[in-house]
Write a structure and sequence with these properties.
It is built from 13 helices and 15 strands. The chain has 392 residues and is an alpha/beta fold. It folds into two domains: 17-44 and 287-391, Alpha-Beta Complex (Aspartate Aminotransferase, domain 1); 48-285, Type I PLP-dependent aspartate aminotransferase-like (Major domain) (Aspartate Aminotransferase, domain 2, 3-Layer(aba) Sandwich). The strands form four sheets. Strands 2-10-9-8-7-3-4 form a seven-stranded mixed β-sheet, sandwiched between helices. Strands 11-12-15-14 form a four-stranded antiparallel β-sheet, with helices on one face. Strands 1-13 form a two-stranded parallel sheet. α7 (181-193) links the parallel β7 and β8. It starts with 16 loop residues before the first helix and ends with a helix. 45% of the residues are buried.
């Protein structure tokens, strides 16, 4: 490989949320963190070079994006995902979670219903509830080691609760599904039929494995494009979360104008200049880096699958189709969620993300971030194995 994903880069004492705030969050200081969604890999060299050039210039005044920025973002979406956009559709926000909250506020009123599909990224529920909207859950179905959508329940819940907005997670965090065109079309047709707008969180779009392809929801039909808010960001793909830049696409002008007004009400205007520079350079010159990263991650997936099968079969891997998370089925350990947390956090000294945080259906599961050198991954697995021996 041209790029190095094996070197362990020290991250402690760098103000890292992942590494430096265990005690603040009630965890042992020496815990191995494999929870939050950032990678232990350096960003691509093209990003480092672009940011370094700006630092040498050493003026950080108010800034905004020019045509080159849109061209790099649009070019990436078109070449990697077949999604063709227009400059007028683009709205930049500091994060996708911010974008979700703005959509909820722009397109629904207090007390109106928003539907999500749990277990799912936990800010979906918190954004709905903190904005005083009615949370409706269409639980995913776990069948034969794979997650499916209950379309009948989805439509029934929409009708019964007069749902106004659907937040789609595609690819799905944490269960790792990459939804097919047929699944997305069926969801979209239901939403069109009942006048439901779709906010599609596609932040993990660039992480798919062999045999699976991410399909932007809005790209499937013009009817879908007219009801969609497509949320993208380079933050997961290139490990740029701390630079706070996301790209939101809304094709419908009426929706877009309402959305802009909601953002303006917060006082947010120009984005972080370093985020703009990193995004543009990554999408322009970071493709080979990502391709090699995907190869490395797939090796890690296979490694964990084999390792668990041989040494700890009580933990079952829900094989991912996308993302850099592993969704681990821990039911065969025979522990309550509280006991499982005690085993992992206080005996194994490993910090995964408890499945209960992702809502209904997350009980008995743990999310593991494998975007780290395989040496670190092995240490995490060994810690779990050694702690589990105390259960016998």
């Amino acid at each position: 490989m041209l790029f190095d994903f094996n070197t362990v880069i020290p991250r402690r004492h760098t103000n890292s949320l992942k590494y430096d705030f265990a005690l603040n969050r009630g965890k042992p200081e020496d815990i191995l963190p494999m929870w939050v969604a950032d990678m232990d890999f350096s960003a691509p060299p093209c990003v480092e070079n672009a940011l370094a050039a700006r630092v040498r210039h050493n003026i950080y005044g108010y800034s905004d994006a020019d045509d080159r920025y849109f061209e790099s973002v649009a070019g990436w979406l078109a070449s990697r995902h077949g999604y063709k956009t227009h400059p007028s559709w683009l709205i930049r926000t500091p994060s996708v979670v911010f974008a979700l909250s703005m959509a909820i506020r722009a397109f629904t009123k207090k007390g109106e219903a928003v539907i999500i599909q749990q277990p799912v990224y936990y800010p979906f529920a918190s954004c709905v509830e903190s904005n005083a909207r009615n949370l409706v859950v269409n639980p995913l179905v776990f069948r034969n080691g794979r997650y499916e959508i209950n379309f009948e329940d989805f439509e029934e819940k929409i009708v019964q609760n007069h749902v106004r907005l659907f937040i789609l997670c595609s690819p799905h965090n944490p269960v790792g599904r990459v939804w097919t065109a047929e699944e997305l079309t069926r969801l979209g047709d239901i939403c069109v039929r009942h006048g439901v707008l779709v906010v599609s969180d596609e932040i993990h779009m660039d992480f798919t494995y062999s045999g699976h392809r991410h399909i932007p929801f809005a790209s499937l039909k013009s009817d879908f494009e007219s009801i969609a808010v497509t949320c993208t960001s380079p933050s997961k793909t290139f490990n740029l979360a701390g630079l706070h830049i996301s790209n939101i696409f809304i094709a419908d002008k009426t929706m877009r104008d309402k959305y802009r007004r909601e953002i303006e009400s917060t006082g947010y205007s120009q984005p972080n200049i370093m985020g703009l520079i990193a995004c543009e350079s990554a999408y322009r010159d970071g493709e080979r880096w990502l391709d090699e990263l995907l190869e490395y991650l797939w090796v890690s997936v296979c490694y964990v699958k084999d390792w668990l099968g041989e040494r700890l079969p009580a933990l079952r891997l829900v094989e991912p189709e996308g993302t850099y998370f592993l969704w681990l089925d821990c039911h065969e350990l025979g522990l309550t969620d509280e006991q499982l947390d005690e085993l992992l956090v206080h005996r194994a000294r490993i910090w995964l993300f408890a499945g209960t945080a992702f809502g209904r259906g997350g009980e008995g599961f743990q999310r593991m971030n494998i975007a780290c050198p395989i040496r670190v991954l092995t240490e995490g697995l060994e810690r779990i194995l050694n702690a589990s021996k105390s259960l016998k």
